Amino acid sequence: MATLRPPPPAAAAADGGIEENAMAILDTAGIKDARDLHDDRAAFLETVRSACLSADNPSPPSWRMYNAVFQILQDSSSLELIMASFHLLMELGKQYPRAYLTDSGSGLALVVVKESWSPFHLRSGVACGEIGGNTRHLNHLFDSSRFSSLIEDMVGTANHTDAYNGIEHIKNMLLLQYLVSTLEADFVPRHVAYKESLDWVIFRESLLQMLLVSRRLAFKSLVKNCISLLLNQHYQEVEDGISSKEGSTKSAPDLDSSLAVVSFEFERKALASVQKLFIMVMNLDLIRKEADTMGLTSRADGCRNPILDAVLDELTYNISYLSPFLLNFVEWKWKLEIILQYFSKYCGKPAVRTRRSDNSQHDLTLENVLSLFSTVATAKAIVKKMSSEVVQLLLANAYQVCLYVEGDSSKDSDATKKIGATLLQISDGFVSAFQNLRKINPDIQILPFEKEALFTAATMTRILKNKQTYE
To answer: What is the pTM of this model?
Structure first.
């Protein structure tokens, strides 16, 4: 839930001297001695923090000050400055949000401070009057193409271990984390406001929508690279596990280096950011579909395939990606949706939605999927298309989602609808599906994850049936 906030103070420079310092730092890069430049930048960051966050009456930073901090994050080769500028940007974003909700009396109203600084340059109308009309200082802002290139670069440097590439990789991870947090801070209050008003314009003007509709963005490549980042983390954890069992060949100084520690810490946070990005785009696609059915969209909103289609294309083309992707993607509602749509590619798709129509009753549910495995004949037809290994993996992951939803006190209604039956019915159907898979192939190999799910389902079926008997 987005936090309710009062209107922030007008965006004025906290101190004219700070701005002059910022301009001096930016204009003398490459001229000053490296040590002097480092000290100037560190002092500037501390001054901005004091004036905008720690003072008794803090003032919001000006456009130039924000931009200078962002440039320090991108230009520095010092881990100290990279970390300091990143944390300062994150704290400033929380203190002075660009979009927030306010209580208008009749409900929640969205407030967007359009003239405020943003790390994104997504349209020519970006406010550059505050920098004297000089667009030179827009070079460090991110458009759609540069955002995609950042993720591509992260994939390319993920396995490099030398000091320079290590610093660059950390910098890229922090940049991604900050950019996604900016998208999220803009997206969440809009999502809350949209639920109340169903006004598509709220999202038409969102940073995420403008980022994705740009013709400069190769959307399918972006999704592919994001999946690669998630898989890199999986394979790295597997390798680390093997190394810890066999005994690492790395020296103690390497293991204890601050670079290795920081890199490991922010690797996980960057991958969490990738998942946040996926989930935001999935929610945006859902909202866009709803707006389409109500006739609220136009050509100006652009056209692209939903992210789930791109994800499924990648997972069905590269079967080896499926298990590690599902293992790393832990947003339960969308994990189940991915599994159901994967099955729908082979089990017959639901009726096509058309503009101004509602065919939600034809959506595939887990109950529907399990019914397709209720007889040997229908199960055999699906296994022939998908392979028994893929079927087992998808069913086991879907059952894992069911267990999570059952134990979640909030009871996500969307996830419950996608399951479509009680836990007893799902557990019983899951056991029956595996029994039929074994009838099709008596020599079928069931992996540990699937075995655990099958054992749990059989246990839950017995417990829940006994409970019904005694009630």
So the answer is: 0.86
